[in-house]
Amino acid sequence: MYHIMNNIIKIKKQITELSNKYSREKDSITLLAVTKTRSIEEIKETIKTGQKDFAENYLQEALNKINTINNPNVTWHFIGHIQTNKCKKIAKNFSWVHSVDSFTIAKKLNDYRPTDLPKLNICIEVKLEKNPQKSGVAPSESLPLCQSIMQLPNLKLRGLMIIPEPSPNLNSQRAKFRELAELQKKLQSNGIALDTLSMGMSDDYEAAIAEGATIIRIGRAIFGEKT
Ligand SMILES: *Cc1c(COP(=O)(O)O)cnc(C)c1O
Is the CB–ligand 1 distance for residue 161 below 6 Å? Predict the structure, then answer.
């Protein structure tokens, strides 16, 4: 599994180069390893490289990995679609949730978050397309949602997350990420403290870094194409 170590080294180097290219602080960009469908052995190999942040999409698969790996130095992020009946276990087992798209979900995560744990870090998933099949809140709904989440004592509202429709080139990718960055600024000017932009995956992380991503979520560029 040398490919994992090599790929992580390569991506870290690219983060440094892109930070210089786009005048970003390299330490302001966190590499999140997305491990859905990847094995426990692959995750352990990744931990050996010093990687600390890991993301999963499916609760049952994630719980199995979290419990087996049982490593307090690993920070687990939930990035999948959330059903209300999964909120209890998500609130107990993760440090971050990137995919909150309703107050109902946020309230349940808050109510189930054990009070002996630190506050659960929350990103709101935003969608720019008017596609009813896609999860995420419309930009116009984001301010009231942020305002109500800020009232929940066991959650810490951190920022915005997006999974844009694939775009063919750097400029069109950047245009979408820029919209999210501008929404963040607008929310900040309305008194919402947000320090996180969770955007960019294997095929578009250069565009995301150019537009201010603070967390890039990378699967295939670390682990290879799924077989
Ligand atoms: C799978 C997934 C990723 C990683 O995608 P890659 O293209 O493999 O880098 C990032 N974010 C979310 C929400 C995902 O589901």
Answer: no
- What is the atom index within ligand 1 of the atom nearest the CA of 99? 13
Tens-place pLDDT, residues 177-218: 999 999 999 999 999 999 999 999 999 999 999 999 999 999
Q: How far is CA 109 from CA 66, 196, 218, 220, in A?
A: 18, 19, 25, 29
Residues with Cβ within 8 Å of 196's Cβ and at least 6 positions away in sequence, in order, are: 121, 123, 158, 159, 160, 214, 215
In short, whether 224's Cβ falls inside 6 Å of ligand 1 is no
Q: Measured from the CB, is residue 113 less than 6 Å from ligand 1?
A: no
Which pTM was predicted? 0.97
Query: Would you say the CB of residue 219 lies under 6 angstroms from ligand 1?
Result: yes
Nearest-10 crossing angle of helices 40-48, 2-21: 50
**What is the 57 CA–ligand 1 centroid distance (Å)?**
9
Which ligand 1 atom is the nearest neighbour of the CA of 202? 9
44-94 pLDDT tens trace: 999 999 999 999 999 999 999 999 999 999 999 999 999 999 999 999 999
